[in-house]
Amino acid sequence: MLDMGATSAGNIRFFTGKGHKNYSEDLLRSSLDPALRIQDSDGKSIVDSKKFLDENLVYPNSLFDVVLCWNLPDYMEENLVKPTIDRLWSVMKPGALLLAFFHTRDAGPDSTCYRYHVTDSDMLEMQEVKFAPPGRPASEKQSPRLQRVFNNRHIENLFRDFSSLKFFLSRDAIREVLVVR
pTM surpassing 0.85? Predict the structure, then answer.
């Protein structure tokens, strides 16, 4: 399984205790690396998605049975979201599951970014994610800003190459989405 949030000792313990091999990549933090920044055709600073994927999610095809995507698409820069989801499709086995959380339109731009820790088969513990923006001192930690709110049609389009998609309304202005490759 692949956990796409910051390393969580609790998640590693929980899933390895159930016999799963666990991989972890903090893609949100990786996407903030200043060395990945380039200028687009309009002169706007963006993350180089090719370089980002050359350095992240580098796994053989069809390796993972489960991917915990969490709320990553809501907080990543726009030009990284679709290429990241496409890469996930490649590294997941056919029939593999992906769990993602998406904010609803009720969420404001200051919505807190959380790291999720699995504490039981039906329980998550949430911990606010804070880190210093690139080039700022560690003492200036802040929660990443919500980049966008996907509506259901956008989520369906994002996962259009996958075989199945189910939406569940969760609490705290969050939709839980279960995707099958």
Answer: yes
